[in-house]
Amino acid sequence: MSLVKQCQTNTPPDDTPPNRYHTCINSHHAVYSENNLPPLLFRLEAPPFDNLPPLTNLVENNQVVKDHDGRPLRAFPFLPRYISIRPAAWLLEYWMRTDPRLTYRDIKARMVVPAAQRPRENTLNMRRERQCRNPLALSCWTSHRRAVGKVEVERVARWSLDQIRYNTTMEIEYGRGAGRSPGDQRTAVRLRSRTLAGGAPAYYPLDLFLDGGEVHVPSQRIREALSLFWQLSERASRLRLGSWRLLPAEELPEAWRSGTQRGNVGEERDVEAGSRRSDSV
After folding, report:
1. I want to staple 89 with a disulfide (CB 3.0 to 4.6 A). Which of 47, 131, 201, 232 is the partner?
2. DSSP characters for 25-88?
3. Can you give the C-alpha Rg of the chain in angstroms?
4. Where are the alpha helices (DSSP H) in 129-211?
5. CA–CA distance, 48 with 140 (Å, rounded to integer)
6. Residue 208 lies in a domain
7. Which pLDDT tens digit goes with each residue over 243-263?
8. Residue 87, number of CB atoms within 10 A of its CB
9. Are strands 59-60 and 63-64 parallel, antiparallel or unpaired?
10. How many angstroms separate the CA atoms of 121 and 64, rounded?
């Protein structure tokens, strides 16, 4: 587990860098933890991100801060000054969702170790997937793959239609309605978040992620993933299989079969292909 410590306001002298596993506390994430996760993690699809302020270089002591390679650090107000080489997966996910301009280069540039000792971008991707998105059944906001992948189908299979309507991956809690018919007895009343460490959940209003208060219309990508999930489930049902995951290779999409031939078995090696922007920092 990565360490999160309090940093001083001023930048520490260059001759006393922090520990390589040290992540500074930033006011944007200080109130959150594995037991109290940021609500943004549970938004199904990204907001528009209109009118983002222009990015500037990070300045400390009247000087532009540069990384080991002499490149200026970009000033993201939510990003800690120093970041562990093993950052918490939920923090990675939170940072990447906060501003779409953020790249792994920006994150790795704040690690105190030389470039050769920093984690590869695919390592950070897989940390987010295995330690955050998968345990919490979260969505992935970026995908540049042409065909819907197996991981995407596995994601949508875990969401209910109501979760999609409310643009969230939080659990939806229901209450009994006032109607007399059985169909009127379940009424959505609030959202319930999940935790990574078994803590008490937090509760939020149903419209937390509804832009303009309107029922969410899923993106074409999610509709395609849902359609493929239903097709595969129907094939599995016809073959009397308990799950689409039990389908033989010849019943899977061609793109997945090609992946199987490469030893990939339909898994996405780079789970979030859209984040593969730089592996040279």
Report:
1. 131
2. --TTTTT-BTTB--GGGGBSS----TTPPPP-B-EETTEE-B-TTSPBPB--TTS-SS--SS--
3. 21
4. 134-136, 150-156, 161-165
5. 15
6. no
7. 999 999 999 999 888 764 443
8. 23
9. antiparallel
10. 25
Q: How far apart are CA 169 and CA 192, in angstroms?
A: 9
Domain presence at residue 133 = yes
Count of the separate structural domains present in the chain: 1
Tokens of 69: 């390679």
The alpha carbon dihedral of 111, 108, 130, 258 has a sign of: negative
Give the tokens for residue 259. Answer: 């992946």
CA–CA gap between residue 192 and residue 202 (Å, rounded): 6
Over residues 99-120, the pLDDT tens digits come to 999 999 999 999 999 889 999 9
Residue 203 lies in a domain: no
Cα–Cα nearest to 233, from 163, 154, 147, 134: 154
Host domain of residue 100: 3-45+53-140
Judge contact between 177 and 250, C-beta under 8 A.
no
Rounded Cα gap, residues 181 and 276, in angstroms? 52
Question: Could you tell me which residues are beta bridge partners of residue 22?
Answer: 3
In a domain, 111, yes or no: yes
**pTM, to two decimals:** 0.84
